[in-house]
Amino acid sequence: MEKKILEIYVHIPFCERKCHYCDFLSFPANDDTINLYIKNLLSEIKEKSKFLTDYIVASIYIGGGTPSSIDFIHIGNIISTIYKFFNVSEACEITIEANPHSSIYDKLKSYYEFGINRISFGVQSANDNELQILNRLHNFNDFLLCFDNCIHIGFKNINVDIMKGIPLQTIDSYKNTLKKILKLNPKHLSIYDLIVEENTLFFNLKKENKLILPSEEEMEKIDNLTLELISYYNYKQYEISNYCKNGFICLHNLGYWSDIEYIGFGLNAASYLKNVRYKNISDLNTYLSMDFKILNSTNKNSYFDEINYLTKYELINEYFFLGMRKVNGISETEFFNKFNDTFLNFYSEKIKKYLDRKLIIHQNNRYLFSKRGMQISNQILSDLLL
Ligand code: SF4
After folding, report:
1. What mean pLDDT value characterizes the chain?
2. Which end is more exposed in the chain, N or C (fewer Cβ atoms within 10 Å of the end residue's Cβ)?
């Protein structure tokens, strides 16, 4: 029987200190806690692999938190455990998220030797004052050194995360960031808007009117500048926030937007298998005390905080919402093959006004955002949910 494709996400929830915008599940921890966490994580990988023998792993993504903040030996053990218990494809894309502050040469070299073939740096800005505002641990020179080291070691596929909409960011300061990074020629860029989330310092400052964010007009100029510079430097946009050089699309992310199944290991990690979404336990002490050796198909529910059996409408909503994030949008044929129903049966009324305003385009049997539509896609997508 042909094996199905699976993506693996591994969550390392540890960070030395909290960035002012961050609402992810991440925190500092001592060595004992980290050692115990990794021990349980390896056990989770091993025990859950028994339920996933009919899959082949196409991508592995070690994210966080800050995976590069822990001892590199742990990363090696995670990768070798996955290889030992899963069927991993030869061309598997293996990514690790790294913070320039904690990515010293020897660590990066060991990642390369473990078979990691993609590094993702959370750089955010080339302006040290903006990095301080965000409470990042690194400065821009730390990143430049890491980038040089990666090239020297042999990494071909490097992603850089950049943030727009940072407090006090100006069009010129953003231009400075983007240009400096583009000149380094990384193969992949993720350019995100800062979102002020609840339970963050920025949220509290915003409530007190003490957070000075770029205006809407400035953000529109920043977005236009992004598209202009990105195409000047020969990058292609393939998703709302993601750009790459030819041949360097991130397979792992593309999988999320293309309805590929995935399993998440570690605290609070999400999985999507056979039309069911799972969320792992989010309480650290509960996770650390779990015994994965006694996990079986009867008691498996107690290993998750949430299990959501998706209805047909929810599956269609997700397929639409995630698929439209891609620059080439959604194929009517694929939609029909998956849901045994036509796309227009669900969306003809809703998308008409966006087709009329040319924010959504219908071409070659696909529905996709126009350039302007892509810029305001979040607004449109929330209006289009079933
Ligand atoms: S490094 Fe990432 S996960 Fe850690 S606090 Fe900062 S934004 Fe959050």
Report:
1. 95
2. N
Closest-CA residue, ligand 1 atom 8, reads 22
Q: Assess whether the C-beta atom of 321 lies below 6 angstroms from ligand 1.
A: no
Residue 31 has what pLDDT? 97
Whether residue 1 has pLDDT greater than 80: no
**Within 13 A of 315's CA, how many CA atoms are on the CB side?**
17
The domain tally of the chain equals 2
**Ligand 1 neighbourhood includes 26 CB (under 6 angstroms):** yes
Q: State the average pLDDT over residues 301-318.
A: 92
Atom 2 of ligand 1 has which residue's CA nearest to it? 65
In a domain, 56, yes or no: yes
What's the mean pLDDT in 239-246?
96
Asked if 8 contacts 86 with a C-beta cutoff of 8 angstroms, the reply is yes
* CB of 22 shorter than 6 A to ligand 1: yes
| Residue 284 included in any domain | no
Same domain, 224 and 335: no
Residue nearest to atom 5 of ligand 1 (CA): 18
pLDDT > 80? residue 386: no
* Residues sharing a CB contact under 8 Å with residue 258, sequence separation 6 or more, in sequence order: 322, 323, 326
Whether ligand 1 lies within 6 angstroms of the CB of 196 is answered as no
CB of 65 shorter than 6 A to ligand 1 = yes
**Pairing outcome for strands 360-363 and 188-193:** unpaired
